[in-house]
Amino acid sequence: MKTRHGLRYPFETPPAFGTTQEIAPGLLWLRLPLPMALDHVNAYALDDGDGWTLVDPGIDSKACRAALQQALDGPLSGKPVTRVIVTHYHPDHIGLAGWLQTRGAELWTTRTSWLFARMLCLDEQALPVPETVDFWRAAGMDPVLLEFRATERPFNFADCVHPLPLGFRNMAEGDVIRAGGRNWRVRIGHGHAPDHATLWSEDDGLILGGDQLLPSISANLGVYATEPMADPVAEWLESCRAFQPYATEDQLVLPGHKSPFYGLPLRLRQMIENHEGALERLRARLAERPHTATECFPVLFKREIGMAEYGLALVEAVAHLNHLYLRGEIGRENREGVWYWAPV
Ligand SMILES: [Zn+2]
Prior knowledge:
By secondary structure, the protein is of the alpha+beta class. It has a single domain, classed as 4-Layer Sandwich (Metallo-beta-lactamase, Chain A). Helices cover 33% and strands 24% of the residues. The strands form four sheets. It has a seven-stranded mixed sheet. A six-stranded mixed sheet has the order 10-11-12-13-14-15. A hairpin with a 2-residue loop joins strand 1 and strand 2. The chain binds zinc ion. Zinc ion is lined by residues 41, 90, 92-93, 211, 256-257.
């Protein structure tokens, strides 16, 4: 068993795309490719006897669909996917859910996840809407980049999420779901995505964590033009603390990315401390002089932010500033459409 940063990883190597790795009886781990810096997402297949429950079936790209098809024709052949469980509405998790629904599967997710995914699939835009451009400007996006992005087709759900047919089954806090020969308790988290479902086995200590419970990488906490005064950092910290009483050393967490791990009590502490540390560095930096959100990248991320990460960094910087602002610790001043943040 490998140990890194105090977490223990029982599986040395992840399964190749299109193949599976048995985690426990009736529970298989799959990897699906993503066309991003984070190049994979985990899916899990739970054996329900006469069919499979598939958790988080990846993004709707050619490569991802091919890898999933390879698994369906290979290790998962012999019975159909009868149910898809989606932890949260992000495209790398819900992308192929609608495709599996058209092939006979039922979709189970939280109501918020379903509404968000379906709304965003229908909200296709050829160019960013004015609210989005204003939001980017307000965050201090570089003017050259802003002009480029304002005239470019933006990220669209419809480009990477298969249309979701009508009909889903709601998963709510406290529900118990039977899948893969186990009873799973639904616990809802927030911050990375509103109403993110996690499933905690009541029989053997397995946890389907989605992006709420990730090892080694931190889930993005982002603010967007849809809800510009949101405080996902507060929601995330509250969720981490709410999970702490249920976390034990012998639980094996099956995350949405990276590898299954033991050590959830430590991981929850790390997740809280990571953001508290970032907020502390931010307070100190803003005390020196007012900053825009993008000017806070170096102090928040402690590394160079490349173009591939710029968008995620921007929404995360605004999230941390909003948190201090809504706590009354900092104020902001608008100069020609750009917010400058400083202690009050
Ligand atoms: Zn994800």
